[in-house]
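Example complex used in Figure S2.
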Amino acid sequence: MRLRALLAALVAWGATAAAWAQAPAPPTADEVEAINDSDGYTPAAGEGAGPASVSINGYVDVGFAKVQGDGTSFAPNDTRVPLDYVSDGFAPAVNSRGDAASTYPGPNRVINGFLPRSAGIGGRPSFLLNTMSVDFKYTAPSAPVMFFSRVQFLPRFTGENDDTRVYVEQAFGRIVPIDSQELALGVGKFDSVFGIEYLDNQANIRTGITPSLIARYTTGQSIGAKLFYRVQIAPLWSAVSLNAAATNSGNFVEALQPPDASLTGVPVGSARLGYELNAPIVQVKLGVSGMYGPRNDQPDRAAHQRAYGADVRIAVAGVYVNAEYVRVEEDEGGVKVTSIGVYPFASGFWARGGYVQLAYALAIDWGPLRRLTVYGRYDRRNAAFAGYAPITVDRVTAGLRIDMWEAVILKGEWLGNREVAGAIPVANDVITTSLVYSW
Amino acid sequence: MAAACSQPDAAPSPAVFTLFDVRALYDQQLPSTTRIAAGSSLPGGIPIGQLMSADGKLKVHPTWAEGYGAAYVVTEVWTDFDELWVQPAYVPVNGWAQGMRDLLTKPWQPIFSVGPGSRFYSPFWQIIFVDVPEGTTPESLTSAEQVLRSGYPLYPDQGSVMVMYPGDVQFEQLTVASYTIPVGDVQRREGWLDGARGSYLEFPSAALSWDDRLVIDEVPIYHFVARANDGSLVQLPIPTVAGTGPPYSNTPAPFIQNPATPAGGPVFTSNYAGYWRLYTVVLPEGARVFAPPARQDVATALENDAPDFPRVAEYSAEIAAATEPEVRGTAGMVALTPACFDGPLDAIEPGNNPDPCRWLSSQQQIERYLDPALIQRTNVTVTCPFVSFRGEAVNQ
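Predicted assembly (835 residues):
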């Protein structure tokens, strides 16, 4: 009885809000997923049969960012070795790729590869061409097969020299073998299956600008094979899905584990089991994820990594709540190899953390304006390398997103980073903006 | 066989063995012959008894330093570490008094920044003095995080070798024939790590330097090996040779001779390194170990550990009649021209010039006399602070 009353209230609130907004909600990750199953910003599982088609899409993400201090999270007087074990180098992120303003440790200091890519701007305000992304999709005629690739151009200057890359972020083929089933099998390089934040990887999809503090563990692409299966339970407006993959590197971002080759010869398994309620007024999506296999930043196949996570998304009346928790453990391994470089060794490591994000979207039809979205997120992360005291950091994110026409998004965001324990407090708050043109 | 020869080298697997690890192996009732670094390029690896006995005595190893006898202990062994880094250790002071740092506690209680659970741990620390306000108690600063969060002025200073170890240890008494190598006492002190009090062994006499990437300078220490009849290499149970600087650098011997004083005191002050890279030296044909009758123990050890290595059967009558003190400075030394063993005793003194024996008792001699191909860098590095030098206990 009480539940029914609550549902009725939600329905009434939703109807009011929808009438006030007079427009559909913004295309957050939830809606993208509704269009594109659980593969993030990739084509939907049901596509493939029918006439041949080719489509080329993409976006350009231009940013402007300013980070306090020298753009890193390294305290000036800290000479502990390595410095990235006693600070969070990912905290001063400036774009949707999670690039930090800087990762340069300075002279007389040592790092060991637990760092993101660097935008190379340090503490100076700078324009950035964060990403130019080109998607190519081909659907075979009269066959349930689709091919997809995403190539990204990443102009960078490290502060000393050019570090521009052309990066094949995704390239895979997918088959839907049974017309009547939501079953898709894919082979190639594709998105993570762990958690929900990978759905937000791309700047033209992400509600805000920067990834969470746990995105480094869950949002990386990798090469391997993937299976997606979903069963609709129409009478209950519900569905249950399974997304599973065996890949070279699991779900860590490429700055931490190279996805393009297996260093151990043993694949990493990962999966997410999801439940979704797609009622007319409210959407609720729940999931649990796991990952297990050898860590792919070193050659010892006995050095394992494990991750467990849970996620929830609720969308009602223009309000979107996303929350995710993850726990990661890594065994001690051999010489450390990441996409950025070779480092002395892979240390034993554990981390736990999560975030809660709240967004409200107001649909507008006034000139070029289509939507205004305000959002906030709270992140917290606790982690330790073997032999070092744990560090705890948290972050408050606040931002505004403006959608214009159907092709331009302007976002502005502030990140308040805080070293709660273990790490030394340092000025590394971020103000960043992003102008995304989609085509 | 061809396939085996074409196998790539095994992937490097960096590992560090501390006294904690040795203690843990003994606690598992493993014998002192249990080997660490067994897969390294040091033939046979290192038995844990070479570091410490089951009852907590640090083994004293004789070595040659510029032709003179010395001795060291081994407290850590690293494999596959191309580089090792100095870590900061914070020492609170109450400013400076009469030009000297006024330590908050005497002796100091360093605040260490990393524990032995990490492979980034090393016993090589850069002392950073923390100038704390008057009234600060030792218990109020017990972690690197507290030091750095405090904002107190920091004054980087020189390095110090401090080996973390929780238990009581002693130096082993090493007696050869009737001679006991003089060693000092272990300085066991207390410090802090992440808020917890712990103990460590201090070796202030061991020299320590590093570059601008905080990488510790390593010095070669030479282990003699010989080829057995089956083609394998075996370590010879004779003293090593301690180097003075990087290979082929002709670095001067790092010690000073103290001016004589009425109060006495040590004649020499050793500044030999604390961090060493092991090099194997494959003895060429014809090289022999000096094992005169007065040191039958040297010959016996060779027979047991390296039975295929040829030994000198006969010495001149004078050498054969020599007493242990008379051969103390040469017994166990390698001669490239052992024909000198047929001559008078004073002709084989290491300091002779010319040197009829062509002894291998210093880095310079090894590099001058031997084909560089016989000198092989291993993937093993060690902490080996000197405890004795030229017949004197090294003051710890």
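The two ends of chain A are 49 Å apart (CA to CA). Residues 1-43 of chain A have pLDDT under 50 and may be disordered.
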